[in-house]
Amino acid sequence: MTTSTPTLRPAAGAFEPRQLIASLPQALRKLDPRHQVRTPVMFVVWVGAVLTTVLAAVHPSAFAWAIAAWLWATVVFANLAEAVAEGRGRAQAASLRRTRTTTTARRLTPDGSTQEVPGTALVVGDRVVVEAGEVIPGDGDVVEGVAAVDESAVTGESAPVIRESGGDRSAVTGGTRVLSDRIVVQITAKPGETFLDRMIALVEGSARAKTPNEIALNLLLSSLTLIFLLAVVTLQPFAVYSGQAQSITVLVALLVCLIPTTIGALLSAIGIAGMDRLVQRNVMALSGRAVEAAGDVDVLLLDKTGTITLGNRQAVELVPADGVAVDALADAAQLSSLADETPEGRSIVVLAKTEYGLRERPAGELAQATFLPFTAQTRMSGVDLAEPEGTRSVRKGAASAVMAWVRENGGHPTADVGRTVDAIAGSGGTPLVVAEQVGDGPARALGVVHLKDVVKSGMRERFAELRAMGIRTVMITGDNALTAGAIAAEAGVDDFLAEATPEDKLALIRTEQAGGRLVAMTGDGTNDAPALAQADVGVAMNTGTSAAKEAGNMVDLDSNPTKLIEIVAIGKQLLITRGALTTFSIANDIAKYFAIIPAMFAVVYPQLDALNIMRLHSPQSAVLSAVIFNALIIVALVPVALRGVRYTPSSAAAMLRRNLLVYGVGGIIAPFLGIKLIDLVVSLLPGM
Amino acid sequence: MSATTAAVLQIGLLVALLAAVHVPLGDYMARVLEGRTHSRVERIVYRLGGIDPDADQRWGVYARSLLAFSLVSVLALYLFQRVQAHLPLSLGMADVNPAGAWNTAVSFVTNTNWQWYSGEAVMGQLVQMAGLAVQNFTSAAVGLAVAVALVRGFTRSRTDRIGSFWVDLVRATGRILLPLAFVAAIVLLVGGVVQNFTGVQDVTTLTGGTQHLVTGPLASQEAIKDLGTNGGGYFNANSAHPFENPTAWTNLVEIFLLLAIPFSLPRTFGTLVRDRRQGVAILSVMGGLWAAAVAATTWAELHAAGAVPQLAGAAMEGKEVRFGPAASALFAASTTSTSTGSVNSFHDSFTALGGGVTLLNIVLGEVSPGGVGTGLYGMLVIAVLAVFLAGLMVGRTPEYLGKKIGRREVTLVALSILTMPALVLVGAAITAGVPSLRDASLLNTGPHGLSEILYAYASAVNNNGSAFAGFGAATTYQNTALGLGMLFGRFVPIVLTLALAGSLATQQPVPAGAGTLPTHTPVFAGLLTGVVLIVAGLTFFPALALAPLAEALS
Prior knowledge:
The complex is a heterodimer of chains A (688) and B (554).
Chain A: H1 17-22, H2 24-29, H3 33-36, H4 40-58, H5 62-99, E1 104-108, E2 114-118, E3 127-131, E4 140-144, E5 146-150, H6 152-155, E6 161-164, E7 171-172, E8 177-178, E9 182-187, H7 195-204, H8 212-242, H9 248-258, H10 261-280, E10 283-285, H11 288-296, E11 299-303, E12 309-320, H12 326-337, H13 343-356, E13 369-372, E14 380-387, E15 390-398, H14 399-408, H15 415-426, E16 430-438, E17 444-455, H16 459-468, E18 472-476, H17 481-491, E19 495-497, H18 502-514, E20 519-523, H19 529-534, E21 537-541, H20 546-551, E22 554-556, H21 563-600, H22 619-643, H23 652-682
Parallel strand pairs in A: 11-18, 11-20, 18-19, 20-21, 21-22
Antiparallel strand pairs in A: 1-2, 1-3, 3-9, 4-7, 4-9, 5-6, 5-8, 10-22, 12-17, 13-14, 14-15, 15-16, 16-17
Chain B: H1 3-33, H2 40-49, H3 59-82, H4 98-109, H5 119-122, H6 125-155, H7 165-190, E1 200-204, E2 210-214, H8 218-227, H9 248-272, H10 276-302, H11 307-312, H12 324-337, H13 352-363, H14 374-391, E3 399-400, E4 403-404, H15 407-433, H16 435-441, H17 446-461, H18 476-505, H19 522-553
Antiparallel strand pairs in B: 1-2, 3-4
Helix pairs in contact in B: 1-9, 1-12, 3-4, 3-6, 3-18, 4-18, 6-7, 6-14, 6-18, 7-8, 8-9, 9-10, 9-12, 10-12, 10-13, 10-19, 12-13, 13-17, 13-19, 14-15, 14-19, 15-17, 15-18, 17-18, 17-19
């Protein structure tokens, strides 16, 4: 899989404190109440800040002003988190937008002539002509011609790609440039709704609708806010009853400390950053729901070719016939493959070099050699060498074809070669027989080359990881059950679907879903479209057809099917980050109670000082320190929100244990230390 | 034998009894509540009521049936009290006043059994037996019905039906509560609890004076009072009265009856969801919280500071000498954690810490183990919240027993959990904040007075029914307000719970795998305990700090 594609778009990269300062103006603009009201938790803080500011103006004191100032800081910090997350996408969007300059399209009229219209005037179904050097005016399918297209503006990949009419390589994206030839493109997307437009909206975060899980979490946070509002409002009558009425400033401070401001402030940043992490990996999620669903996936359908295996069969072993030295076989195999330009043929030359120490021989070195290229009719390739003992003919190819050649030339294939051929075929591999004839002597089989599908390195470990996470992998292949079974066992997938047709794939997805499981798959062809649409997470390859891209809910710009595994990890990380910071936020409240409650009632119930286990300096410094901690923890957690919490694939039980320990227990302890440290500083201030 | 040894032996015996009983009783309840057959008597009841026992209801219909049944019960009980002087076996008691009759009607229908009156002075035998005791059965049966309906939300899939309220009610009453109460009444009768229709007896005391002794059908009332986690005593003194609870043995039997059904329901749950480990996890959370409360109360009452308790060896004020501090502490911790509210000692006179634990037990939301049915559904609702919080941390949309916890479920759970603290805090704040209301009801001032107010509202809203005796609840305002507290505290969470059941039942369950949050492990049990404590702690900490904490630390 590609880990480092050269990208032309600016990457968001790691979080840097500088981004906080750069985003400050944006954060201040977000102080508008119309923006704040969208997050109920932060809106309560905003109202509290206004209230305490008015009170500080009416009854000025260092304490009142300090509380008001820090409440404003809390709101600004929350805005800052969102602004930083958005800012990371904005640079990418700006770069994308530059490519979306108004293009002039040459529309084909029914009589065959062309007519110049602005790109924005195109409608679905229009046909436009694009020639070398021109920018494709909109999303569409190539219906005529073939061309090299530079898609770096969208994919970040600088190498041009081939786009041709028909087949699975016909889709083109508006804003990309044709480098050669002439194509006719049928427009499939309305202006303003093209892939590029959607991408810009996506990376900017403007198109981001709240996902189901985010809505549920927001509801919970609002309920918690309501409950704390009640607890604080009803505290005043109890306080009056007890003989120490509280100032509104202190009550507001208590309320803000109790409501889940940490997660409330970071929730939207977490969502934007989650999308951003996908964009970093060149995946465009067309809905946030799909990203969340990725975390829930139970079954991954993976195509064998290109995803699990390298895609071409390769020589892995040479099995000599009885009485033949393996070096002789290697030499013959290499000679017969020198002119074989197929990947299989090249892999034999490579194997002869790496495993049997034969150096490569350029074709020209063998002056008196006549090469026979592979044809579908002969099903073998070979070489005839003029040597002193007579012509030496070497042949390599499909077992039946080469065996027949041996018999025709007076030889008798030995039984052991037949057994080897059967054994290799039985294991899911492909046997190629190598034979030679020297002079007029009888031909003889030298041995067998074992070709097989090579599983990409590291796949077995990844599937084991997925299994630990509770995700089942199913390999989809057009091979027969025998071959498929052998590869499946080698790759370590849980199941396979052999001789699969698109209908089989769709049926498999439906069966899994009927059992309550969520299914993810990748696809690129038009015949994949129904399955992509049916799957809960359908990742279309960017090289695929428009139909496939339309049907899926994500598009991988790198067209790397293995990326599905990363998408699942990103989906999980998004949910974990939300859960961890929610837990942390609620766990924080315990320490705040211990700081504020004894401080509030120090006069009437001095015995409550026993709860002041942090030994804070004074009632005022205690309240202020809790408020300051509450504000600063938001900034401290911005990097976690943007990067996501550490995620290592493991079982749910292990993950729960770890995260509860770090964010639950840690969330209880951290504020005790933090508030104490802040109090040490605050106690030095005058008036505290 | 030291007081501590006696306490440990007594608790050990109780735990052994519960351990022996919870498996067969839990399995029996599972069989009864999800059974397919109807007995002949049940068929007659259904025919009389015009009910098709095999027609399951949608959650809305289920909830409306439950509310209608409860409304009729309240009206009937109200009317009954208002005309009791004209009925037989009234023992000459007058009609009950409107505010008082309303409060009592609501109190018994909501399984609260808060009593603003002294039973022996206000209620005649007919109202006690045919009115209050009937509600003792049906209100407990309603709790069981809601619990099993919620469990069906987890066990059923792709249906909008969560069972039939009428069938659940009839089965819970007829096959679970009646037979158990019958056996319990016999045991109590043998143990010395009074059962007669004599009414008032005049006896000559040792000093030659005459004393009126009220007696009546006590053993039968006593059995369901405790078994159904009701708590409304025949006498004002409740289980501290020698006719209701004569010996240390009957005391232990009564505590056992309080806990028997609530501690068996997790087994019923585990059996019904076909994963007994789930039941064990819930049971361990309930049991852990209960054990901690018993330990804290017992320790506080045996080690009270101050000159008088030191001389007496323990905090004896407000306790029956027949039972002593340990048996009183065990009873108090059990009755407040089961939403029962029957008492064998006066919680108002407990040490600040011991009294504080009884209050904390109530504000946990009555889930440790809680009332009949209410404890299980209350705990499951909190478990759904815990799953939502922690479930995110394993990187999946949270799911409990295969059912996804989405927007609708979170809303219902959040509202359900929000109801109780809102009612308690607002109710208590009004009484504490309005001087005339405060002065009309408070016996004590300072933090102890605040404890009394908080206790009254916590007890009413959580349908416990026990009282910090210093609080005078017999005013028109308090009777009305506490009545509303009981009503909303009972039925708002019930309707939300049934809606949750309906929402869960429609879902197709997600099969469990290695990626699913395991909800049967010690880690999850610990998490659930933490969520129970944190939810209650965060909402009530400020109020508790000003009441029992300020008192305890002084």
